[in-house]
Amino acid sequence: MNPARNSAPRALATPLVHLASEPYYHATGDELEVFASAAKSGLPVMLKGPTGCGKTRFVEHMAWRLQRPLVTVACHDDLTTADLVGRYLIVGDETVWMDGPLTAAVRAGAICYLDEIVEARKDTTVVIHPLTDSRRALPVEKRGEYIEAPPDFMLVISYNPGYQSVLKEMKPSTRQRFVALDFDYPEAAIEARIVAHEGGVDDDTARKLVKLGGLTRKLKGAGLDEGAGTRLLVHAAQLIASGMSPAIACTAAIARPLADETDTRDALDDLIRAVF
Amino acid sequence: MSERKLFAHELEVRLDELLLLSLRQRSAAEPAALLETLPRELQERVLHWAGVAAQTSDDLGWLIASRAAEQAASLGAQLDDWARAGLDAYDHSGLAATRRALNDFAAAHRAGAFESQEGVAFGAIEGRLSRFLHALEGRPLKLASGARAWTDSETLWLPERLDAAPDAAGNRRLYKAIAALLWAQTRFGSFNIDPEPELAQWPAPEPALRWFALFEAMRLEACIARELPGLAADIAGLRGPWPAQLAATAAALARPQASAADSLACLAELRRVGAGETPNFPHVGALDPLAARRVRAVRIARDTATLRQALNLLRAVDPSAGGQDHPDYPPLAAEGQTQHVDPQAEFVALPPPARAAARSLQQDLGEIPPEVLQAAGPGAWAPVDGVDSYAAVTVTTQPDAFYDEWDYRRAAWRHGWCHLYEMKAPVGDHAWVDEVRTRHAHLIRSIRRRFEALRGEDKPQRRQFDGEEIDLDAQVEARADRKSGTEPSPRLFIHRRRIERSLAVMFMVDMSGSTKGWVNDAERESLVLLCEAIEALGDSYAIYGFSGWTRTHCDIYPVKRFSDRYDAATRSRIAGIEAKDYTRMGVAVRHLTGLLARQNTRHKLLVTLSDGRPDDYGDEYRGRYGIEDTRRALLEAREKGIRSYCVTIDRHGADYLPQLYGPAHYAVIDDAKKLPQKIAEIYRKLTG
Questions:
Q1: Does B131 touch chain A (CB under 8 A)?
Q2: Is the pLDDT of residue B381 over 70?
Q3: Which of A81, A167, A218, A262 best probes binding to B when mutated, by most B CB atoms within 10 angstroms?
Q4: Distance in Å, alpha carbon of A9 to nearest chain B alpha carbon
């Protein structure tokens, strides 16, 4: 008996995540209602916003709220159509068809979340087109299969308009298929609540972290490509909660990930020192 | 270098050579006599700086030489910094400013400010501080060096060098503290009251202003403490405890409700009881409310006009919008909150410039005056004095960009030295292009054929999980593995993947006067051939011409932007490339590499087409200066990941080329007529 026979497909199986407990999410606008309505109407949704402002968390939260399984794909520039749809694998003497994450999500009636869609290769985005209009179907060419999506299937994509690059713009033919939700850093008071909750720090520390985050965001375009997202602030908070001094935690979790260049790093250190 | 000191007569000859003094009927005898006493090394430094300065202007050279002769002995190792400060002042404000800067520097030096070796120069901390200030809230501030620390509420001047603390870290902290307090002056309303009536009652304004600055520093430190406690703690640590007789005042001014008016009241009180000697705190910059308020008045007028115009436009579109009764515009100034400035104020519906103006007004006035928000009828607002002329000036003479230039003699940057304008490329005769295409039809055909072979080709990738074809080698191996009982690899396919060229090319074309005639024709013909060839390849490319006349007129002509197509309009612009003025190459390289760096391709290539060494009107850019600056610009390009290739048409061999194009590869073409034939081949080799 060949041990490889069963191990290969299992290793590549698509994770369908069923969220059992509520992922923490603090709504800042009407995004919960819009998303829920889109889900009800079978419309695909596009989330726009800077890095680390809660897009992924929002999708997880909605998957829990709607009680649907979630498939997340982090897109990268080598992501091919086969990576999304599926491929034949040779296992022992036979060929075995392996569903890709998108196909698996369609079959299961899950929410399929394509994170940072613009990173994927151009031809890849075309495969989602039939899923995003009235057809709501996924043609699997290699198997000659045409999978009609069940009502519970939902496609969600995200992208960061902050990357000011021509090549990473999404084509209008793709953009215009989606209901779009704009995400931004939450306003200071709400962000402080999020940082306090997620990072396990007291309100005062959370407020200072948010203040620091706001200052770094002003450096966008003046040394930084992007300021510190809520996620970075939460990381810093977690380090502080585990007993680290705020200055060291912020340097490690915020300043260093943001900048390599000396002047900017020094300026960030100065900002950290100024806030704490 | 010989160790022997130069004698006065030798120094006199050297100075005369450098400064051409005999022509100007000046005598080097006096400075030469002073310099004679110095060690040889210092003598040479003085001569060096005199020479450097003389290349900018004879008067500047004389000034530096004569002052250096007087002060070199006391300045010692600081001579270089002293001279740089002077040259910098000249670049910005002319000869009188240089004289002041040199004197200030020397005075500060005599005062013992520079004794420590642990001093920090402004240049060393500028980048860090400017980012720090940029991140802080409020109106953006420019950072510059000057004789004293003060701000006019738009620019923040800091001393050339700080040396008060015993170690470098302390001096850096001091820079930060001074800058933070000056920032706080603009942020927390130091200029929102008129101190003139009070100042008028003092016998001399100078001590009054120093006291006022000190009281404000007490108040502002407390303001900072409320927003940035760490920064305030740093400042407090630097200054130490307030003297006992001032402690009560400091506590009173630290109250949250204290304003600049309270500082002024303290000043009035002090005048009544009699002011003693002003205590000296190095972290307290100067306060010049009169100058700042002049700048503020102009800004308020400008911001008011901008905001009104935006509101009027908004109301023109939607007559119900605007005014204080509109729900989208809650009362902008909350009563009783005049000092509190909310940067996130509600101007969401306004365009960004108007929003910035509104925020700036809030910062200046504490509130937006109601009359600004009053409906004034579309376009009926009366322009405030100075506003219209301001707009006119910005429209017609504002350069598109400023670029630093490298001065090898100073081994320093000249900041914002070159003024770059993007001009409209002239349009030429389209028929000329057609004629070139007919004349070179055969050449174009063969180039296209060769280039098509280079085009992004399909490369088969073997041993893939899936693909269009079966990989026979892998199949055979897998079979053998299975027979022998080992685990076969599942990677059995060939996947054909298109390899994209992912290349962006910028052609930078010399439009200097010396290209007139054959060279210009050759350049234009080459560009036509290149365009034909690159169109076959599908690379992304742009063509920009450059020329200019002194540093204040560096012109760039977009012949074909990256987004333009190779169409009739582009072809006419190629035909329109003409010989204009001079060749200031460095700034052109910097600007165009900036454009190129924005292209999202894996490879970026800058190709310069020129007919010789960099040159500009006046003697300065000619020779080594221009070569060093261009070389530096090409090095910067390489740091940005841009490869450069320089094609030079020069029939007299070119000994300066290795020096100039050190960081780049280059080709020399001795006959302009050969350029069109060669250029396509060069491009093919470069990108193949």
A1: yes
A2: no
A3: A218
A4: 11
Query: Which tens digits make up the pLDDT trace of A243-253?
Result: 999 999 999 99
ipTM over 0.90: no
**Dihedral (CA of B572, B578, B584, B585) sign:** positive
Share of chain B above pLDDT 90, in %: 4
CA distances for B62 relative to B54, B56, B98, B493, angstroms: 7, 11, 12, 79
Chain B nearest-CA distance from A166, in A, is 7
| Dist. CA B11–CA B28, nearest whole Å | 8
Tokens 């995200």 sit at which residue?
A: A158
The size of the A-B interface in CB pairs under 8 A is 77
Q: Which of A198, B450, A195, B315 is nearest to A212 (CA)?
A: A195
CB B405 within 8 A of CB B629: yes
Q: Specify the DSSP class assigned to residue A121.
A: -
Is B36 part of the contact surface with chain A (CB cutoff 8 Å)?
no
Angle of helix B79-93 relative to helix B40-56, nearest 10 degrees?
Answer: 10
Q: Looking at the partner chain, which of A168, A222, A264 has a beta carbon nearest the beta carbon of B600?
A: A168
Q: What does the mean pLDDT of chain B come to?
A: 78
Distance CA B74, CA B72 (A): 5
Q: Which of B132, B176, B235 has the most A C-beta neighbours within 10 Å, making it the best mutation to test the interface with A?
A: B132
Query: Is A215 within 8 Å of B135 when comparing Cβ atoms?
Result: yes
Q: Is B134–A276 a contact, with Cβ atoms under 8 angstroms apart? A: no
| Distance separating alpha carbons of residues A107 and B247, to the nearest angstrom | 75
Q: Which residues of A touch B487 (CB under 8 A)?
A: 2, 4
φ, ψ for residue A101, nearest 5 deg: -60, -35
User: For residue B59, what are its two tokens?
Assistant: 């008067």
β A179-182/A45-48 pair status: parallel
Nearest residue to B214 (alpha-carbon basis) of B264, B159, B156: B264
Give residue B276's pLDDT.
74
Beta bridge pairs of residue A224: A220
For the record, the structure tokens of B64 come out as 């530096």
pLDDT at B375 over 50: no
Using a CB-CB distance cutoff of 8 angstroms, which residues of chain A are in contact with residue B344? 187
Distance CA B113, CA B163 (A): 6
Q: The tokens 């690159």 sit on which residue?
A: B534
CB B146 within 8 A of CB B157: yes
- Does residue B100 contact residue B135 with C-beta atoms inside 8 Å? no
CA distance B499 to chain A (A): 12
Residues in B closer than 8 angstroms to A226, CB to CB, are none
Q: Is the pLDDT of residue B133 over 90?
A: no
With an 8 Å Cβ cutoff, is B237 touching chain A? no
B163-173 mean pLDDT: 83
pLDDT per position as a tens digit, B90-131: 887 788 888 888 888 877 777 665 555 677 888 788 888 888
CB distance B238 to B173 below 8 Å: yes
Closest CA–CA distance from residue B224 to any residue of chain A (Å):
9
- From the list B84, B73, B82, the residue with the least C-alpha distance to B39 is B73
Residues from chain B that touch A275, judged by Cβ atoms under 8 A, are 228-231
Is the separation of the CB atoms in B550 and B405 below 8 Å?
no
Contact of B136 with chain A, judged by CB distance below 8 Å, is answered with yes
Q: Name the minimum distance, in Å, from the CA of A232 to any CA of chain B.
A: 17
CA–CA separation, B84 and B102 (whole Å): 9
If you search the block for the tokens 């504002």, which residue do you land on? B398
Shortest distance between the Cα of A61 and any Cα of chain B, in A, equals: 28
C-alpha distance from residue B157 to each of A12, B179, B181, B285, B413 (Å): 62, 8, 12, 9, 18
> For the ranges B18-32, B55-69, B161-175, B379-393, which has the lowest average pLDDT?
B379-393
Q: What does the pLDDT look like over A210-234, one tens digit per residue?
A: 999 999 988 876 677 788 999 999 9
